[in-house]
Amino acid sequence: MSKVLFAVTSHFKDDSGWESGCYVLEVAVPYFHLIKNDIEIDFVSPKGGPVPVKKLDLDDPKVKSFLKNKEANEKFHASKLPTEVNAADYDAIYFPGGHGVAFDLPYCEGIAKIAGKIYDKGGVVCAVCHGGAGLLNVKLADGSFLIEGKNLTAFSNKEEEAIGTEKKVPFLLETALIEKGAKYSCVANWQEYVVVDGRLITGQNPSSDLEMAKELVKVLKEK
């Protein structure tokens, strides 16, 4: 049985009191698709323990189903610390979105090292939406950045501006990825878009989470 590690944020409020956290829908949709395909899932976050979410995000029916699922709910609210994770146990790592990711995952050395080790041993690295922020500082064994020269996508600057959060986030993700040497591309706002570059799979926005999960299953089955 394949195992996938979901790397989620521990951040909830910034200094101004703006709430962000994890966008649970981008956890729930891939979770159920992977479980359906007999893939085991664990969670890791910078601080471990319960994962912060906005109350508004809990109204979605798919999120409600996820949180009503005993095993999913227990794992989600008892995320592991990076020091409790052995990268060798996992075939892939997935970074879901939510604005909170931009505040902590790029600076979490432990999770970045786990992602690098998974990729170095032939595993898959995935991200959707703001989850792409978790890829920014992932380095490989040779010291290079994982995303350098890779084709990928993530939440676009235009999408950030469309929801009025371009001044609230610590950086614009599209810009940051390009500055790190990634070959970024996107489509129109809110449209499904997934980019597969070998063992790096990325989705642009919430509409892309299921397709990302399908591509991950495909790669894992090929392996």
From TrEMBL:
Pfam families attached to this UniProt entry: DJ-1_PfpI (PF01965)
Q: Which family does it belong to?
A: Belongs to the peptidase C56 family. HSP31-like subfamily.
Q: Tell me if rRNA-binding is a UniProt keyword of this record.
A: no
Identify the InterPro entries for this entry. Class_I_gatase-like (IPR029062), DJ-1/PfpI (IPR002818), Prot/Nucl_acid_deglycase (IPR050325)
Which BP terms in the Gene Ontology apply to this protein? methylglyoxal catabolic process to D-lactate via S-lactoyl-glutathione
Q: Which residues form the DJ-1/PfpI domain?
A: 25-218
At the top level, the lineage of the source is Bacteria
The alphabetized UniProt keywords are: Lyase, Stress response
Name of protein: DJ-1/PfpI domain-containing protein
GO MF term set: glyoxalase III activity
Species of the source: Labilibaculum filiforme
GO CC term (a single one): cytoplasm
